[in-house]
Amino acid sequence: MYPEYEYYGKKKKCEEVPISFPTQHQNQQPGLETLMVPRPISENSEALGSGKLKDKVTIITGGDSGIGRAVAYAFAKEGADVVIAYLNEHEDAEETRQRVEQYGRRCLLVPGDLQQEAMSQEVVRQAIQHFDKIDILVNNHAVQFVQQSILDITAEQLDLTFRTNIYAFFFMTKAVLPHLKSGSAIINTTSVTAYAGNPQLLDYSSTKGAILAFTRSLSQSLVKQGIRVNGVAPGPIWTPLIPATFPEEQVKTFGTDTPMKRAGQPFEVATSYVFLASDDSRYITGQILHPNGGELVDS
After folding, report:
1. Does residue 32 belong to any structural domain of this protein?
2. Would 223 be classed as within a structural domain?
3. How many CB atoms are closer than 10 A to CB 245?
4. At 187, which CATH number?
5. Residue of 86, 167, 204, 273 marked catalytic
6. I need a surface site. Which of 61, 243, 249, 253 has the fewest CB within 10 A?
7. Is residue 15 scored above 60 in pLDDT?
8. pTM of the predicted model, to two decimals?
9. Is 7 part of the annotated catalytic residue set?
């Protein structure tokens, strides 16, 4: 009951997800899924939707690839139309759009830099123009930079990481909020690093901690309006950010230090977002789900 995927030229089942990866590196952030070997597993093609998000309109930032792509596919299967905000990974984004449309749903691509508040307003303007409403916001995009010491983190890098990873979540939420109504949902992607930290990702981990606090605080702010705010804190997941971030040898063993001894795949995370976006979680707000391969965290 698992889809097949190509790995080193051989057909495999999803229960046989890769435990190690070929050495590889991409010289750009946030990376391209089209260049990854093997490609991330974005969907379980055997899983059938049940209309949990029928005719909902969702904005997914960073929806061109990785976790965002998997969420777009899962939402489309559940009947949602999708707006994908992304930086400049046009080939990845177009592939995602085509797959969403194969499920009979509409998909709008909006490229641009979400560090700038005006870009969030533009994403929302186009979403309303095309779909007349917004029901769900998934704040998901991020950048990260490996540094061995805090002494190596420049003010420019710190500003870039915070403006991308947390400022933009504020900007998107502010732009979307006037269009949300009771029953709407906001889902923020934080990380296991918000709880466990990471000595090589000081500024990234700090932003993920900020997203955690943002999620909990925003949930209290919006609960009286009937708008639920929750988050997902993935562990190590095989996405373009990994080869675009870590040295080749680290990529080879990525995720093997988890209790499950492997990295997760995007499709294994996407169902958390479906749950939090749907009425299945109507009594849940201010909470974080932890698809992380068994790492124990204090939530």
Report:
1. no
2. yes
3. 23
4. 3.40.50.720
5. 204
6. 249
7. no
8. 0.94
9. no
